[in-house]
Design goal:
Strand content: under 5%
Radius of gyration: 23 Å
Oligomer: single chain
Order of helices and strands: HHHHHHHHHHHHHHHHHH
Structural class: mainly alpha
Number of helices: 18
Number of strands: 0
Mean pLDDT: 80
Shape: globular
Distance between the termini: 47 Å
Helix content: over 70%
CATH superfamily of the largest domain: MFS general substrate transporter like domains
Largest sheet: none
CATH class of the largest domain: Mainly Alpha
Number of domains: 2
Length: 502
């Protein structure tokens, strides 16, 4: 006997049906959110390749140029928790659209900057609106895709964008700088923002404000001040010694403020970051994973860029193209990890295997030398690292934002970006310091004016960065194997459950 017509129709929504429209609408929303996320992530690297051209054009000093990058990360990293809470309090759609519009306006000002000060201020304002935009986008993704199978696929795609954005920024920055000029590394954001703004205005539905809650002003001051101090301290470590008060002083102040913030959250009537978000083991492990990815990924993206350009003589465009296989492997692993593998394995083995693969890729890179070839020596470890990071990012992002109360969605999403941002700041500062020390040590007693000696000194320094990046991932594999539950919890809100047996 054939099944009833209604059963057949409900199994596969036909064109023109309400279910078919809603399904297509969800994937269009993912495309809009993905464009916005790509814009925010690639902006952390797209300007890097353009810095020499911008410096020559505007005439600022070598000691000042780091602020073009640091101003963005300072504002972005220190205001993410506030941005996430604003999305919860005032609505995710309006916060998302406001973030897009502000980011586009700041990019236009930065691209037209006639001096160093205007450029730095524009970059800081970009970071401010990015802190509104990023948590709102991830929160919208969480609330748009509620079906387990669709959610896995959506987070796989979104995680691939988040993981590959830095490498895409290097490629796009090289193309724009080489064929247009450095200002287009900022103007390009307007294109992304306008597309996402138009799509978001049409497709996104307004979410209700949480009228029973209020903004935690003391928590906002403590969290923003603490995160600012931590990011600023690590940023200073790049240009000052670790023993400088501008480094350890700000790090100490940041730790004190963040400690006070944690204490206040246990007493606040409407906490900025409800501690129930952090007390879930899978969620806490996911934030830790994003922190480690943020720190370790610089071992391949930053120092391999130096190696390709300074040792192998690659142009900016060719350097960006060299990273494309890693982008592809991140996208492949991220999508597979959230769909095929995610439905068969819990988060623990997926993230742990990803950490091990990333560590193996980093260690493989330590074998690079002055006469290494791309296909034989650079490409394989890039692919292995990309596969590992793809598994980590997609799984961690899904676990970090799943099973939260609707009123906590923005805060949980903000913590993902905060962990990655702080990890990136920590990784940049620590690895830069280690590379500089290793390079200086190698040059002792040698002819520092020799190009061959200089190249070998750089390789020794880069190898140190790769080893430490591998160590980050090995530690991450051990910690996540302990923290993640053996089985993924049911897709329900269990934020109040803190003691779950292995």
């Amino acid at each position: 006997m054939p099944p009833p017509a209604s059963t057949t129709a409900s199994a596969t929504p036909g064109p023109g049906s309400a279910e078919f429209y809603q399904e297509r609408r969800r994937w269009w929303i993912l495309a809009i959110l993905g464009i916005a996320q790509l814009m925010v992530v690639l902006d952390a690297t797209i300007v890097n390749i353009a810095l020499p051209s911008a410096q020559a054009d505007l005439g600022f000093s070598d000691s000042s140029r780091q602020w073009v990058v640091t101003a963005y990360s300072l504002a972005f990293g220190s205001l993410l928790l506030l941005g996430g809470r604003i999305a919860d309090l005032f609505g995710r759609k309006i916060t998302f659209l406001t973030g897009l519009a502000g980011f586009a306006a700041a990019s236009a000002v930065g691209g037209a900057a006639g001096g160093f000060e205007m450029l730095v201020i524009a970059r800081a304002v970009q970071g401010l609106f990015g802190a509104l935009l990023a948590p709102a986008a991830l929160s919208l993704l969480t609330t748009t895709f509620t079906d387990a199978k669709e959610r896995g696929k959506a987070f796989g795609i979104y995680g691939a964008i988040a993981g590959a954005g830095g490498a895409v920024g290097l490629l796009l920055g090289g193309l724009l700088t080489e064929h247009l000029n450095w200002r287009w590394t900022l103007y390009i954001n307007i294109v992304f923002a306008v597309v996402a703004l138009a799509g978001g205005a049409v497709l996104l539905q307004r979410t209700p404000r949480v009228r029973t809650s209020a903004l935690d002003v003391p928590g906002t001051v403590l969290a923003s001040g603490g995160l600012f101090s931590v990011v600023y301290g690590f940023a200073n470590a790049e240009t000052h010694a670790w023993g400088s008060p501008l480094t350890w002083g700000f790090l100490a102040i940041g730790c004190l403020l963040l400690g006070a913030f944690g204490w206040w959250q246990t007493r606040a009537a409407h906490p900025l970051l409800p501690l129930r978000i952090l007390l879930d083991r899978n969620r806490a492990a996911s934030y830790l994973s994003m922190l480690i990815v943020g720190a370790g990924i610089f071992g391949v993206s930053l120092f391999l860029t130096y190696y390709l350009q300074l040792v192998l003589g690659y142009t900016p465009v060719r350097t960006g193209l060299a990273f494309l296989p890693m982008v592809a492997s991140i996208m492949l692993a991220s999508t597979a990890g959230s769909t095929v593998l995610g439905s068969r394995f819990a988060a623990r083995p997926l993230v742990s295997v990803g950490m091990v693969l990333a560590a193996a890729g980093m260690l493989w890179l330590t074998a690079l030398s002055t006469d290494s070839g791309y296909a034989a020596h650079v490409l394989p470890p890039l692919v292995v690292s990309g596969l590992g990071m793809g598994l980590i990012i997609s799984t961690a992002m899904s676990q970090a934002t799943g099973r939260v109360r609707p009123e906590d969605s923005g805060a949980a999403s903000a913590m993902v970006n905060t962990a990655q941002q702080i990890g990136g700041s920590l990784g940049t500062a620590l690895l830069n310091t280690l590379v500089a020390a290793t390079t200086a040590s190698y040059l002792v007693g040698k002819d520092a004016s020799s190009p061959t000696v200089q190249a070998q000194a750089g390789i020794e320094g880069y190898a140190t960065a790769y080893r430490w990046s591998a160590l980050f991932f090995v530690i991450g594999a051990a910690l996540t194997a302990v923290l993640y539950r053996r089985h993924n919890p049911a897709d329900v809100d269990d934020n109040t459950s803190t003691a779950v047996p292995l």
